[in-house]
Task: inverse folding
């Protein structure tokens, strides 16, 4: 379901959301945004769309999505981008379901073939829809947030 929270003046503070570094410690505004889960179950994944994600300390690029969430409030935050919107949301939900980037950070440096993967740490996918490995699919399928349907 979709709920538009933009008409609520008390939520305007979250339009430009301070997510800190999007790992581990969550900022107070980030945690407060996730309190807005009207008619949502404890294992439902919520996607919040904001104008900007600020104070992210992950160089060298601007962060356009963050899948860090408070305990028992699964979800992610994304900004609206013109290209590949649905794959950005899919990428962030995949993080919520237990996936990590295919390269960068703790993982090996990116190679051209990584840009084919949904878990490439950028929206510059070279293959649409992006690839999902069997192992990645199984990890998401085995998540306690996944439902067999």
Result:
């Amino acid at each position: 379901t979709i709920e538009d929270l933009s008409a609520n003046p008390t939520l305007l503070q979250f339009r430009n959301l301070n997510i800190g570094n999007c790992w581990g410690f969550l900022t107070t505004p980030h945690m407060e945004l996730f309190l807005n889960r009207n008619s949502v179950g404890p294992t439902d994944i919520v996607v919040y769309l904001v104008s900007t994600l600020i104070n992210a300390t992950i160089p060298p690029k601007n962060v356009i999505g963050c899948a860090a969430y408070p305990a028992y409030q699964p979800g992610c935050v994304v900004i609206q981008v013109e290209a590949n919107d649905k794959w950005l949301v899919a990428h962030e939900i995949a993080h919520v379901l237990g996936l990590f980037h295919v390269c960068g950070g703790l993982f090996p440096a990116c190679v051209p073939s990584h840009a084919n993967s949904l878990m490439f740490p950028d929206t510059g996918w070279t293959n649409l829809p992006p690839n999902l490995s069997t192992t990645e699919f199984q990890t998401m399928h085995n998540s306690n947030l996944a439902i067999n349907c």
About this structure: Residues 30 and 114 are 30 Å apart (CA to CA). The first helix runs from residue 28 to 33.
